[in-house]
Amino acid sequence: MTRIPTKQEVLDWISANPTLTSKRDIAKAFGIKGADRIDLKRILKELEAEGHLEKRNRSYRDPDRLPPVSVLQVKAPNSDGDLFARPLEWHGEGVEPIVLIVARASDPALGEGDRILARLTVVHEEDHNYEARLIRRVGTNPRRIVGIFRKGAEGGRIVPIDKAGSTEWLVLDGAVLGARDGELVEAEQAGPKNRMGLPRARVVERLGDPSAPKAVSLIAIHQHGIPDDFPDKVIAEADKAKPVGLKGREDLRDMPLLTIDPSDARDHDDACYAHADDDPKNPGGHVIWVAIADVAAYVQPGTALDREARKRGNSSYFPDRVVPMLPDRLSGDLCSLHEGVPRACIAVRMQIDADGNKIGHRFVRGLMRSAASLHYAEVQDAIDGNPNDRTGPLLEPVLKPLYAAYATLKKARAERQPLELDLPERKIVLSDAGEVTSVAFRDRLDAHKLIEEFMILANVAAAETLIAKRRPLLFRVHEEPAPEKLESLRETAQAAGLNLAKGQVLQTRHLNALLNAAAGTEDAELINLSTLRSMAQAYYNAENFGHFGLALRNYAHFTSPIRRYADLIVHRALITAHGWGDDGLTEDEIARLDETATHISDTERRSMMAERDTTDRYLAAYLSERVGNEFSGRISGIARFGAFVKMDETGADGLVPVRSLGREFFHFDREAGTLMGSDTGLIIAIGQRVTVRLAAATPVTGGLELELLSIDDQALPRGRGPKGRPTRRKAVSTKRKKDKIKRKVERKRRQR
C-alpha cells in the first residue's frame, strides 16, 4: 500500500509548487495510485474544511499568495551565509512561504531586522519557494542620479546629464562598480545629505556609451523633465500604508474576477467577470463586472503622495522601464490586483441587453481577490482551442462567458460606429543589455478588444453616474476635426478616387465608410494615416464636450487610477457621490479642476513626446548597422525641406532631404501637401509607395536620413541641371502660374 502523505506534507507541496495544484498533480508527486486516491481526496477535503486550502476550478491552493512586490523583514543569515526574509503581508492560513534574498553586487548590506521592499519570483527549490530582489529599504529613499562618470585619482565624479543639475557627485574608489571614464552611469546617494563638500554617490548600474540603447530612455526622461525619483515624504507615506480590510466594503472575494494584461505588465489595475443575466426580463442579456484598484483609499487629498501623483499626472512607459505615477509600494503592491491577494477595489456591475446596450449599472466599494492574472495571448489561445494549465480550468466557467458578453457588446458597438482606424501598434523588443533585437507589430487580438470594450463601458457608467448625481468630475474630451484638417482629408480621399461627402454634420460613421472603402486597396494605409492626422488631440476638461472618436456623449477615465491622475479624481468623485467615506473629492480639488485638467493634459503630452523620442532613438540605434541597405516604405509627410518616409519593416520615420532629390528645384505646395519638380514635373505626395536607401542613422538624436530611389516602382527622374548644381527657377509668384501647377498636380494624382 502506498504511504499517504500527512496534511502538513500536502500543504508543503502546494506551497512549494503553486502551479501544480490539481488533485492529479498532488497524487503524482506522492506516487498515489488507484484506490489510494480516495484517502488523498479525504485529506484535501479536510484541509479545505479547516480553511487551510480552497478549491478553485479543480485545483487546490493556499487562500492567498504573496504579491510580486512585497514588504519583507530580513532574518539573520543561516550557517551557509544565505539571507532569508519573512513576508510581512502573508494573509494565508497555510504554511508561511520561505523567501530567499538574492543580492546583487550593487545592493547595500542588509542586516537582521531590516524591512525591505522587494520584487518576488516564485521558484521551486527545496529550502525556499520565493526569491526576492531588493528594490530598497523601507523608510529609506536614496536619491538617484544619471550622469557621465569622470575617473579621478581616487574614484571619480559624476557629471549630471540633466541641464538643470549643475552639482557634481563624488564617487569613492570602492563605489565605482568598475565604471570607466566617459560612461553613462546610474548612481544613488551615499551618505548624509548635509555632508560638507561634494555630495557622495554610489554607482548602481553602468549604462555604457551615452549614445548606447540602454541609456536612451533615461536621457529622454531627463530631457523632458519627467520626475523619476520620489521625495522622502512621499516614500515615507507609501511605506506606512497597510492593506485595506473588509470593513465598510462589499465582499467580492469569491467572485472569479480576472486580470488580463500584457505579458510583461507589473501592475494590474482592472479585473473583470461576466455571466449570462438570470433576470427573466432580460433574455439574452449579460451581467458584466469591472473591478478597479481603489487607489483613493491609499492616496488621499492633500497628502505628499497626492501632490506628487498630481505633479506627475501619469505614468510614463518606455521599452525598457516605467516611470510610475505612484511608488512601487503602491503601484506594484498594495494597489495592484495580484492573483490570490485580497485587494481593495471600486467595482461596477453592469447589465446589458441582447443587443449589447447597457440597461443598468451600480457601483460598489469592495474587497476582491483575483482568481488569476492572465495575459492576452494565453487567453486568446484558450478560446481558440489551445488552453494551458492556467487557462484550462477557467475556460468554461469564466473565459467563455466573458467572450459571450463581448460578442453581445459588439452589436452595440457596430450600431454606435466609433472610429475604426487600422494602424498597427509597434513593439520594440530589447535584449538584457538594452539593445534592440527586433521591431515587431503587436497582434490585435479579440482578447485586447474585449478588455477595451469592457473598460469603455465602465468609463461611460462612471461619467453617467456622476452626471446623474450632479458631482463635478474630469471628462475625457475628444472634439471633432477642425474644418481645415477635414478638407485636407477630403482632398486626399479624392486623389485616391474615394469620397468624403460635404454638407453634413460629420459623424464617425462617415469616416468609417471612407476607411472601409479604402480597405484592401493600396491606399488603405494612406487613408488611415490621413484620418488619424485629421483628428484633434484628446484632453481632460471639467466641462463635457463629448468624445468624437468613440461616438460617446458622456465619457470619463475611471479604469486606470494607478497610472492616471484623472482616474483618481473620478474615483474620489464616486466616493463622495455614494457617501463611502471621507477620502472623496474635496472642495479645494473641485475649485481647481480646470487647472488640474490643463496640467494633466500637459503631462500626458510630455510623456508621449518622451516616449516617441525614445522610440526614435532606439530605432536609429537598431538601424545604424544597416546603413546602405534598401527599404520599402510610404511617404508619410511633406515639408518644404523634404519628404518623410515611414518604412514598412520597422515603422521608423526617416527624412529624404529636398537637396538630395535631383538636379531640379522642387516647389512646395502647403495646401496640396506636395513637392513638385520644376523640370520633370515629378510629384511627391503623401501615400506614395517608395524605395529608399538608408544614408545615415544618428542614435543620439534619433534621426534617419534616406535617399529616394523610386516612387510607385518607377525610377527617380533627374532634372536638366548640371550634375551637383540643381536648377533653381524663380519662385512661382503669379496666380496664373500657381493655378497651372495645381492643375498639373491634380492630373498627376489622378493618373496614379
UniProtKB/TrEMBL annotation:
<dbReference type="InterPro" id="IPR050180">
    <property type="entry name" value="RNR_Ribonuclease"/>
</dbReference>
<dbReference type="GO" id="GO:0006402">
    <property type="term" value="P:mRNA catabolic process"/>
</dbReference>
<dbReference type="GO" id="GO:0005829">
    <property type="term" value="C:cytosol"/>
</dbReference>
<dbReference type="GO" id="GO:0003723">
    <property type="term" value="F:RNA binding"/>
</dbReference>
<keyword id="KW-0694">RNA-binding</keyword>
<keyword id="KW-0540">Nuclease</keyword>
<feature type="domain" description="S1 motif">
    <location>
        <begin position="628"/>
        <end position="709"/>
    </location>
</feature>
<comment type="similarity">
    <text>Belongs to the RNR ribonuclease family. RNase R subfamily.</text>
</comment>
<feature type="compositionally biased region" description="Basic residues">
    <location>
        <begin position="720"/>
        <end position="752"/>
    </location>
</feature>
<keyword id="KW-0378">Hydrolase</keyword>
<dbReference type="InterPro" id="IPR022966">
    <property type="entry name" value="RNase_II/R_CS"/>
</dbReference>
<dbReference type="InterPro" id="IPR003029">
    <property type="entry name" value="S1_domain"/>
</dbReference>
<dbReference type="InterPro" id="IPR011805">
    <property type="entry name" value="RNase_R"/>
</dbReference>
<comment type="function">
    <text>3'-5' exoribonuclease that releases 5'-nucleoside monophosphates and is involved in maturation of structured RNAs.</text>
</comment>
<dbReference type="Pfam" id="PF00575">
    <property type="entry name" value="S1"/>
</dbReference>
<dbReference type="InterPro" id="IPR012340">
    <property type="entry name" value="NA-bd_OB-fold"/>
</dbReference>
<dbReference type="InterPro" id="IPR001900">
    <property type="entry name" value="RNase_II/R"/>
</dbReference>
<feature type="region of interest" description="Disordered">
    <location>
        <begin position="715"/>
        <end position="752"/>
    </location>
</feature>
<keyword id="KW-0963">Cytoplasm</keyword>
<dbReference type="Pfam" id="PF00773">
    <property type="entry name" value="RNB"/>
</dbReference>
<dbReference type="InterPro" id="IPR004476">
    <property type="entry name" value="RNase_II/RNase_R"/>
</dbReference>
<dbReference type="GO" id="GO:0008859">
    <property type="term" value="F:exoribonuclease II activity"/>
</dbReference>
<dbReference type="Pfam" id="PF17876">
    <property type="entry name" value="CSD2"/>
</dbReference>
<protein>
    <recommendedName>
        <fullName>Ribonuclease R</fullName>
        <ecNumber>3.1.13.1</ecNumber>
    </recommendedName>
</protein>
<keyword id="KW-0269">Exonuclease</keyword>
<dbReference type="InterPro" id="IPR040476">
    <property type="entry name" value="CSD2"/>
</dbReference>
